[in-house]
Every structure is written in C-alpha cells, then in structure tokens.
Amino acid sequence: MPSQTHVTTTINGEPVQFLCEPRQSLLECLRDILGMTGTKEGCNDGNCGACTVVFDGRIVTSCLVLGVEAQGKEISTIEGIARGNRLHPLQQAFLENAALQCGICTPGFIVAAKALLDQEREPSEERIRFWLANNLCRCTGYDKIVRAVEQAAAVSKQEAAR
Amino acid sequence: MSAKAYSVIGTRPIRHDGADKVTGRALYGADFTAAGLLHGAILRSPHAHARIKRIDISRALAYPGVKAVITSADFPEAAERTVDMGEGDTPLSYARGNVLAIDKALYRGHAVAAVAAASLHVAEEAAALIEVEYEPLGCVLTAPEAMLETAPQLHEGKSNLASQFQHVLGDAAKGFAEADVVVEREFNTATVHQGYIEPHNATALWNNDGRVHIWCSTQGSFVVRDCTAIILDIPVSQVKVTPMEIGGGFGGKIPVYLEPVAALLSKKTGRPVKIVMTRKDCFEATGPTPGSFMRVKIGAMKDGRITAAQAYLAFEAGAYPGAMVGPAGMTVFAAYDIPNAVIDGFDVVVNKPSTAAYRAPGAPNAAFATESVIDELAQKLGIDPLEFRLKNAAKEGTRRVDGPKFRRIGCVEVLEAMKNHPHYSAPLGGPNRGRGVAIGFWFNVGLQSSATLNVNADGTVNLVEGSTDIGGTRTSIAMQAAEVLGIPVADVNPSVVDTDTVGFTAVTGGSRTTFATGWAAYEAAQDVVRQMKERAAKLWEIDATAVSFDAGVFTSGERKLTFKELADRLPATGGPIVGRATVNPPGVGGSFAGNIVDVEVDPETGKTSILRFTAVQDVGKAIHPSYVEGQIQGGSVQGIGWALNEEYYMGADGTMMNSSFLDYRMPTALDLPMIDTCIVEVANPGHPFGVRGVGEANIVPPTPAIANAIQRATGVRMTRLPMSPPAIMEALWRESSSQRSSGN
Question: B630 vs chain A: nearest CA distance in angstroms?
Fold first, then answer.
C-alpha cells in the first residue's frame, strides 16, 4: 500500500485532518475518506463541473486538485451552503423554480452560483450563463437554473438591504 | 380543453426530495458504501472486433490487494436459451456477452475481465496486468456497410442484418403517380449518447445465505433484478435491488452492465463490491442511440394533400441486435394522414456499443428525415409549412401506416398553437437568419406499476412506490393521490423502495411514470377512500353506501368527518388502513410536440446559434406544470445538441475519438437562449386525470426544426447529423461551387 500523507485543512469553516495517498484527488478525499458525498463525480477530468468546490476563494473542479494540495487551504463544499436549518436563497430558489430534475449536477451548480453571487449582486442573464458554462446539466436545458440564480440574486439583494 | 377544476393537480409544489437534493444529502449509487467494501475495475477491449484467444489473469491475481479476477468463464454454466431482457427476446449468450465478452470482443470498450481489490487504484493497476491475446478482425461501423455480403460478420453463422420489417398501407406506387410534386432524400445521423451526468454504478453483495443484494442507480429496479437473475442463472427471488437516487438516464440506465459483474466478484470474495464507470466507459461501453441511414420520399398534389410516402430505415444496433428501428417505423409518418405508404426497417449489427433507448428512441432519427422532406415539399408547393402540416395532420381515426388507428390526439392542436404563437409571426431581424418548424410524435407506454398508501393517525399518508425518481415523479405521483384524498400534497410522503418491498413496477421510461404509477397511486387512494367510508359508516352505524366523500370530507346527512379526523379514529374502528393498487393500463395516449426555432448561421465559421426556441407539446394534463416545462426544455436542448454538435466521432478502426465531455460537446448554459414552452392539454381519455406523459416527444422535432431553419438561413438543405460547423461549411462550399459550375 502506498504511504499516506497527513493533510490538515479547513472545510466549511471547520478544521479537518485526513490521511491520503499522494495520487488521490481532492474529490476522492472528500467522498471516500471524509464521507462528504454531496460533491459528485460526473467525468473525473474537469469537464462537467459536478465536483465544483471553492478552494481558497476560487471555484475549482475538485477532481483536478490533489488531496495533498488542500494542506493549509480553505475549502467550501455543498454541505456548507445551508445556514443551519435554513436553506441558502440559492437552494430555496432552485427548489421553487424546479431548477433540478435528477439533481446530480445540482451541488456543483449551487456551489458555482454562490461564488458568483458572493462577488456580484446583479449578474445579467448572459453573465450567469457564462459563469455556469463549466457546469453541465443534461436534464433541464438550463432555463430554470438561470432563472433560479436570478431569483436568488434578487432575494439576496433584498436581504442585504434589510 | 381540460376544464375540470382541481385543488392539487396543476399546482407547483416543491418536491418531497428537494431538501436532500440541494444540500448534497441525497444518496446516489456511487455514494453507497458498506463495511468491507471492495472496489471493482473492468478491463475493456482495445479492439472494435477481435477474437479473444487467451486470457491470463495470473499476474493480476497475484498483485497485492487483489481479491478476485473474473472473466465470462465465471458465469455459471447454463444452456443457451432465449431470455426476456425487458425489451424483447434475446439469446442468453448475447445478454451475458454484453456484460463480459464471450469468445469475441465486438466493440472497442467491450468488457473482457474484472478485478476486485481493496482500493480502486489497486483494482485499476491489476486490470492492466491481465494479459489478453486478441486476434484482431476487420470492423464495420455503419448499417449500409454491414449489410454488404463482403462485410465482416459479427455473430458467426448469422447475418449482420438481424431483422427487418415492412409496413404497407394502400398502394404507394399509385399514390406517387397521383402526386404533382415528389421529394426524395437520403439522410444520415450519427451515433449520439444520452449524456447523463452520473456514470453507471453498482454495488453488489452475494450474501452467505445465497441472496444477492444490489444497490445501484437505475431506471428500473425490477429490470435490474430480473436481468441480473437471468444472467447469473439464479431465481429472481434471490435478488433484491435497492434503487439509489439516479443522476439521469434518458433510456440509457435501463440495461444492466455492472450489476452481474459486481455480483460475481462478490460471490468470489464474500464481500460487497462496488464498480463505477469512468466517463470514457460510459461513452464506449454503454448503449448510445443508433446511427442511421434513411431514405424518405413523399409526394403531394398541388393543393397540398399528401398522396404517398415511402421510408427506408437502416439502423445500427451496435454489437447485438435490437436497434430502435421498430419505434422509428411506428413514428416516421405518424403525424400525417397518408393514404398510401411503405415503410421498410432494418436492424443491423455493427462494431459499436450495443445501443439502448434514448428518449423517444428511433423517433428523432425518423423525424429528421420526414420533417425535412415535408418542409421541402411545402416550399416547392409554395404553402406555409404549418398550413401544409395542418392540411395533412393526423387526427382521431387516422390509421397509422404500421396499423393502429389513433384515438383522441393533439396533433392539430399543437400545430394550431404553433401557428398562433407570437414567435411564428415575429420579425427575424437580421441577415443569415432563418426560422424553421417541425413536429414529432411519440406513442408513450403504459406497463405495470404498483403503489400502496398507509394512512397515518395524523391524517397524512405514506406512499410506497417502485418508480425510480429521475425528475420529480415522487411529487407528480403523490399529487394524484392527494387530489383523490382531498389533502395537501405535503401530507403525502412518497418513498421509492426496494424490490422486496413494493409490487412489480416497470421502468421509469416511455413517458409512463406519471401516467401509470400515477394511476396506481390514484387507484390506491380510491381504495383508501372506500375503506375509510366503511369506517365512517361503522361510527355512524349506517351502510357504507350512505357515506359520501368530497374534497377530503366524509359526510352523511348532517354528519361529517374530515379525512384527518377519521384517520385519528382508525385504531378504534378496526385498525390501520392500507390502500393498494396495481395497474397495467391500456389507455396510453400518444404525445405530439412541435418547435419554432430561429437560428443564425455564421457564413465564415459555419457555427449555428439558436436565437429563439419555442417548444409546444400536448401533454394531456400537466400534473406539475413546472416539471412538465422542465421535461420539454430538457428534451428540446438534448435535441439541439443532437442537431448541432453531438456525435460519436469514430476512427476507421472503431475507436471513438471524442470520449470525454470536452470533445463530445453537449450544450452548455452559454450556448442557449431561454427555452419557451407552450403546454397544450388535450386530455387523454385513457387516464383518470387525462395524463399522456411528457418525457419524450419533445426531443423529436428539434433536429428537423433546426435543419429547416438552417435551410432558410443559408439556402442549404442539411441531410446529415450533426449539423456541426465543419458540416455546414462543407455544405456551403458545395452549394457555392455547384452554383458556379451551373453558371458556366
């Protein structure tokens, strides 16, 4: 068995330590070692976006990041989006707009869309489509996803104004 | 058209599994784990066609961490016989052979051997150590080539032309003689993939008591149970399938690929074994939809009446017989009332993965041909393309070429909705733009479903069903029970359960789930009402026939009990109530869909942009309009991908050159406009709420609608899918050079 490396990192604001092989991707570490299966594998080569996480402030496909690279970094995943028992406005908007069908791409879309809304209050439809172009959805045709992000942006803006 | 007022049907509640799916808590097949879990990897053929002369597993077996290695030699011995794999009869050796190759590899990516090991990486390394001696054979990749006598033969002693059929109506020769204008064209469509984002997966445990337990993502848990039992030659009673959440299927997650392999590895190791396909495996070794060669000829009189039609449909089955050419023959002319027609269909094996269903399988290919010819005929006759279609549209009583007479259908209503849609008369507003229209048909299916309802003391009910939920069907089924019981849909708690726990339920496919399992829930709710009337009668000391039930309230004269009040009194009146129903409904209602699409074709690059897209569909009754819109939008966009970019780009040696999501280019959010939907509701008289099913017809019209729009934008008639930038440039160059030469 290849020797394992000890990794100390922060996931969704909590300190986390794990052992992994140097060849294991961050996606494998999240799913198979830490049991955080909310992050999904769709292609394992960076082209579908189902495994999108935030890595030190940038969205990345976690299948293209090695687990050992998480050392000392801050990672956010789908499991950290809801605010306690309250869904994030994006999660609520996805449900109200029927922006998911099978749901396998949904975690990646929500993580990516949140990163957009965290930096831009009122993204245009074009901006949302451009930002989400690395996330593939095969069920919805994206229409309802784009609308959900627009609604979440409006709700977040109202909340900020209060 | 569906004027009845409902309290739940037609509303847009949030799905019951919604919170799980937006928080990452929902467990899909690949998320499953168990104590002692082993990981499987599969060795696949590098050749598209080769005899397997020898397999040496010794080095793999000796590799540290490896627990078992299997090949097709590990299938239990069983006499060759015909088995039912859910989509018609097939020899057992074919059913087994697609799971682990027997004697020959028939496509690149064909599974040859499998390894179970303590980790996935070890299993993959060990699989690479399996030595296979192949004798490569010539490969054949298209139906017309495979039908040549000189073509390499896939199955020894059997023609590559696995089967053929002919449908005849009237006298086509006479009909064509009566026609003033006849258009005939040949069409080719490339192999395309369903493109579900979740790869196939399966975990199996062959337990010490001999029972096999499988956890997987599938469109049909009972199909997995039955097919696994057939392949492993064990009774169905020995197999239990627990369906996990499923990340898309579109028809591609009906066949079994990994389940019997994981089970055999578990039998050898005594431990649960999980196998998850790579994306490359999904492209190379699961069932895409057939590539096809088609010739369609249609004749019409000057007044626009179609007199005759003829279709030649040759579909690539892939490695084993069973191309969806039958449904292509059923749908190719279904939208029209045609007095004289001949349809010839050919199911041809080629060295590509064994094809599977993909959303209205066969119909999009056929419609690409028919609707392109129809468009050209309308142009030649100088008739508006929608008027031409309306003049010939199929109606109740129209006989289809393949035999059946239509019951109430919505073809005319869909065409009228297209004609009246503001999109159809809106200005195009620019050069290199064109507007196309097309319609399509899918017959939908019924099949068996089961449901039970357990009444809780607080007036809620638990709904138990067997249809795996790919797009919100827990809710669309629960809504039908709620409507009957007169309670809010939030008070119906649906569960999709394993094959030991619910009655037989066929696949989530054929647009049948909201129709058939919804009907089972409706009947189970009626059963609950009947039993609860008896309880009310007992309390009131009257006859049950004297109890009325409406909008969730039981009454008899002045006395009344709400559903909730009566539910609380069940223990005192005889105990719990379970409503149950099974259905195998005959009253299936086919669905028509139509598109209006505006495109702009860049003459420098050949790139086609979709500027505006309107999708119309007759759904019978929209139980949950948002989910209906979602089905229409999703099918439309898959059709757009099929039209413009998607294809198996094959090397001459049968290698798929683009087996990744980078190179197999499915539409992204940036490639598309909003997809406007227009729901038409011509109630299906064969369903209590008028449901027809909505999942499939929507993928039928996009490819011809886009081809027709491109023709109007460029003057060039595209007859090959995909209409990718290089294909369009080639067609434009060919057109301009033929114009130059004709000018000389």
Answer: 6
